[in-house]
Design brief:
Layout (H helix, E strand, L loop, with lengths): L1 H38 L6 H22 L4 E2 L9 H36 L12 H28 L1 H4 L8 E2 L1
Parallel strand pairs: 1-2
Subcellular location: Cell inner membrane
Family: Belongs to the TRAP transporter small permease family.
Protein name: TRAP transporter small permease protein
Length: about 170
């Protein structure tokens, strides 16, 4: 059980980078806006840096959201289920998510390897390497896949409540 709690805590810790990326993105955009408005000198590569930080924000935050059940959920129908059916519904949902996200992670990883080998860069006034963004995207999806697998195995063995006992509850249920 400690392995599953460790996995969830690791996902939450990596997800914290998402918040840092948000702050960094605000600083980059603010600096760019002030430079444009008052000095007629925009921040070079502001758009490229902001896109990279957005990728960090979104893809590194997904596993942490999964670990804390912070994803938006509409539970109108599942709230009507008995505990046994809720358990089965969770197992089926996590299984489907594992297969779908796992396939996307696998394809994203293959694409990241290819982009890295090619040294993929953007075209513009200042060339910007894109391959690190592809690696971050693939890493985030792989971590999400591992977190879903951890949730699936942990839920199958102990049930959701006991598995999440070591983490804060940020559930977004309606």
């Amino acid at each position: 059980m400690k392995l599953f709690i460790w996995m969830s805590r690791f996902s939450v810790a990596v997800g914290s980078l998402s918040g840092l990326a948000t702050g960094a993105m605000m600083v980059v955009i603010l600096t760019d806006v002030i430079g444009r408005a008052f000095f007629a000198a925009p921040l070079p590569l502001a758009t490229e840096i902001s896109v990279m930080l957005l990728i960090v924000k979104v893809f590194l935050g997904m596993a942490g959201a999964q670990a804390t059940d912070s994803n938006f959920q509409v539970t109108v129908l599942t709230d009507l289920l008995s505990p046994r059916w809720k358990y089965l519904q969770r197992i089926v949902s996590l299984s489907v998510a594992l297969v779908g996200i796992g396939m996307i992670a696998w394809l994203a990883t293959a694409y990241a390897i290819e982009a890295t080998e090619m040294g993929e860069t953007s075209f513009g006034v200042h060339p910007w390497p894109i391959w690190p963004e592809r690696i971050i995207l693939a890493a985030g999806l792989c971590l999400l896949t591992l977190q879903i697998l951890s949730d699936l195995v942990g839920s199958a063995i102990w049930g959701q409540e006991r598995l999440k006992s070591g983490l804060p509850d940020h559930s977004g249920s309606l």
